[in-house]
Amino acid sequence: MWDKLTSPAVQQLVLECVRGSWVVRILFPWTSTGPTRTVDAMRELSPELNLLSWERQLWQRLVRAGIPVDSIAERLTRAAAGATLDDRMLMIGIGHLLGVATAWLIVTYTPRALRRGALYSSARMLLRMAKIVFFICVELVAFPVLCGYCLDVSLMPLLASASLGSRVAVLSAHRWTALFTHWLLGLLFMVHFARFVLHCRHVMRPGLLWFIRDPNDPEFHPMREILEDRMLPQQYNIARSALMYCGIILACVGLTALVAVRTTHGVFPVQWRADARFSDHPTSILLMVFLLPVAVTWGRPNEVLHALFSRWWRVAAHATRLTEFVLGERSILDEGEWTLRRAPWLPVLMPRVWMPTQVVESAFAAFNGVDEARAGDVPDALPTGEYRQQLQLAIDTALAASHPH
Question: In whole angstroms, what separates CA 175 from the centre of its chain?
Answer without folding.
Answer: 23
